[in-house]
Design brief:
single chain; transmembrane helix; transmembrane; 2 helices; elongated; Cbb3-type cytochrome oxidase assembly protein CcoS; membrane; mainly alpha
């Protein structure tokens, strides 16, 4: 039974260390995307379809 307590304690400590390492990596900009903004202008823009306006039924000719 004492082995379970030891393994649980060690696993919690390792989880805290990995969480701290992840937070530090995010704060230091490890996951910032510096490549995509430089090539964004090379991608085709999506075409925006305009919805046709309904004919005004009250319009008199």
């Amino acid at each position: 039974m004492s082995v379970i307590y030891i393994l649980l304690t060690i696993s919690i400590i390792i989880a805290i260390v990995f969480f701290f390492a992840f937070i530090m990596a995010v704060k230091n900009g490890q996951y910032d995307d510096s490549y995509t903004p430089s090539v964004r202008m090379l991608f085709d823009d999506e075409l925006v379809k305009e919805t046709p306006k309904k004919a005004d039924s009250t319009k008199k000719d």
